[in-house]
Amino acid sequence: MKKTSAAKKPPAARKTPAAQKAPTAAKKAPAAGKTAAGEKPPVAKKSAAGKKTPAMKKTAVVKKAASVEKPARKAAPVKKIAVTPPSGESPTALVRRARRINRELAEVYPYAHPELDFENPFQLLVATVLSAQTTDLRVNQTTPALFAKHPTPEDLAAANPEEVEEILRPCGFFRAKTKSVIGLSKALVENFGGEVPGTLEELVTLPGVGRKTAFVVLGNAFGRPGITVDTHFQRLVRRWQWTDETDPDKIEAAVGALFPKSDWTDLSHHVIWHGRRICHARKPACGACPIAPLCPAYGEGETDPEKAKKLLKYEKGGFPGQRLKPPQAYLDAGGRPAPPLGAA
Ligand code: SF4
């Protein structure tokens, strides 16, 4: 992680990372005054990006998963581990700070939902595999033609690979992805009676399906809690100093130790939505970030509010979302559906 200028950090952020008093500092953050440099700290919750929409219903969100993801050799469940803060913060302070960030994010994204269009577990599984190395938007623009022609695992298992390749061409890596989705469809037919299994252990036996894809399906099609560690999740939890692990399985375990299991799926949604809209990889929009007072990495991105606002994406920036058929709650919050392939 890049070093952050202390002068740019809001008071709460400055105190938080190493600090044993992090939760106390964080609570005071919104009311805190100027930084050492005289900059006003960002205001939590009330920014354009963080406007509350209390009527919105919370739903799940889907993350990208890798079609080329290697199946896990062993589908070991997440081990319960002790909370081990990477900085000098106490375990209790870290748990409190992490949970507070999640609560704030739940207010910022009350309409968070899976960003892949799907109508059943099979469609979600296939769409998640296709989402590797491309955007959910591109997958959503491609899958209507695929599922219209091959609606079931039986249909896709028996499909002509060349025809499927043509349909999947817009997703990139279309030959490998064709092989993956036909292969997993065959495995569904041969090993699971044409039904998507509802356990981690079974899902990771499917070709091209690893833990990440499995958790997306379990969390969003079966309602079973899981943490999905994608690229956004990895980046943000390191910025927040929730863990300094770099291995996805270890990140999953370290972050899982900070939250009750019942929070895991929604937590994944909140973190990934924030990574896609505000806390970008190269230029996080710190000046428009509703959780800036809680963030040890404040200042890593653009701190000028007006400039930061221009960096916001999807509904936070006034643009269409990724789904062609988003949930009603998203539309009610002012979100707009994505255009079909070729329309924009
Ligand atoms: S945009 Fe990211 S790095 Fe910047 S304050 Fe927000 S969470 Fe922290």
UniProtKB/TrEMBL annotation:
<dbReference type="InterPro" id="IPR004036">
    <property type="entry name" value="Endonuclease-III-like_CS2"/>
</dbReference>
<keyword id="KW-0378">Hydrolase</keyword>
<dbReference type="InterPro" id="IPR003265">
    <property type="entry name" value="HhH-GPD_domain"/>
</dbReference>
<keyword id="KW-0234">DNA repair</keyword>
<feature type="binding site">
    <location>
        <position position="286"/>
    </location>
    <ligand>
        <name>[4Fe-4S] cluster</name>
    </ligand>
</feature>
<feature type="binding site">
    <location>
        <position position="289"/>
    </location>
    <ligand>
        <name>[4Fe-4S] cluster</name>
    </ligand>
</feature>
<dbReference type="GO" id="GO:0019104">
    <property type="term" value="F:DNA N-glycosylase activity"/>
</dbReference>
<comment type="function">
    <text>DNA repair enzyme that has both DNA N-glycosylase activity and AP-lyase activity. The DNA N-glycosylase activity releases various damaged pyrimidines from DNA by cleaving the N-glycosidic bond, leaving an AP (apurinic/apyrimidinic) site. The AP-lyase activity cleaves the phosphodiester bond 3' to the AP site by a beta-elimination, leaving a 3'-terminal unsaturated sugar and a product with a terminal 5'-phosphate.</text>
</comment>
<keyword id="KW-0326">Glycosidase</keyword>
<dbReference type="InterPro" id="IPR000445">
    <property type="entry name" value="HhH_motif"/>
</dbReference>
<keyword id="KW-0411">Iron-sulfur</keyword>
<keyword id="KW-0479">Metal-binding</keyword>
<dbReference type="Pfam" id="PF00730">
    <property type="entry name" value="HhH-GPD"/>
</dbReference>
<dbReference type="InterPro" id="IPR003651">
    <property type="entry name" value="Endonuclease3_FeS-loop_motif"/>
</dbReference>
<dbReference type="GO" id="GO:0006285">
    <property type="term" value="P:base-excision repair, AP site formation"/>
</dbReference>
<feature type="domain" description="HhH-GPD">
    <location>
        <begin position="130"/>
        <end position="277"/>
    </location>
</feature>
<dbReference type="GO" id="GO:0051539">
    <property type="term" value="F:4 iron, 4 sulfur cluster binding"/>
</dbReference>
<feature type="region of interest" description="Disordered">
    <location>
        <begin position="1"/>
        <end position="58"/>
    </location>
</feature>
<dbReference type="GO" id="GO:0003677">
    <property type="term" value="F:DNA binding"/>
</dbReference>
<dbReference type="Pfam" id="PF10576">
    <property type="entry name" value="EndIII_4Fe-2S"/>
</dbReference>
<keyword id="KW-0408">Iron</keyword>
<keyword id="KW-0238">DNA-binding</keyword>
<feature type="region of interest" description="Disordered">
    <location>
        <begin position="317"/>
        <end position="344"/>
    </location>
</feature>
<keyword id="KW-0255">Endonuclease</keyword>
<dbReference type="InterPro" id="IPR004035">
    <property type="entry name" value="Endouclease-III_FeS-bd_BS"/>
</dbReference>
<feature type="binding site">
    <location>
        <position position="279"/>
    </location>
    <ligand>
        <name>[4Fe-4S] cluster</name>
    </ligand>
</feature>
<dbReference type="GO" id="GO:0140078">
    <property type="term" value="F:class I DNA-(apurinic or apyrimidinic site) endonuclease activity"/>
</dbReference>
<feature type="compositionally biased region" description="Low complexity">
    <location>
        <begin position="7"/>
        <end position="41"/>
    </location>
</feature>
<keyword id="KW-0227">DNA damage</keyword>
<keyword id="KW-0004">4Fe-4S</keyword>
<comment type="similarity">
    <text>Belongs to the Nth/MutY family.</text>
</comment>
<dbReference type="InterPro" id="IPR023170">
    <property type="entry name" value="HhH_base_excis_C"/>
</dbReference>
<feature type="binding site">
    <location>
        <position position="295"/>
    </location>
    <ligand>
        <name>[4Fe-4S] cluster</name>
    </ligand>
</feature>
<keyword id="KW-0456">Lyase</keyword>
<dbReference type="GO" id="GO:0046872">
    <property type="term" value="F:metal ion binding"/>
</dbReference>
<protein>
    <recommendedName>
        <fullName>Endonuclease III</fullName>
        <ecNumber>4.2.99.18</ecNumber>
    </recommendedName>
</protein>
<keyword id="KW-0540">Nuclease</keyword>
<dbReference type="InterPro" id="IPR011257">
    <property type="entry name" value="DNA_glycosylase"/>
</dbReference>
<dbReference type="Pfam" id="PF00633">
    <property type="entry name" value="HHH"/>
</dbReference>
<dbReference type="InterPro" id="IPR005759">
    <property type="entry name" value="Nth"/>
</dbReference>
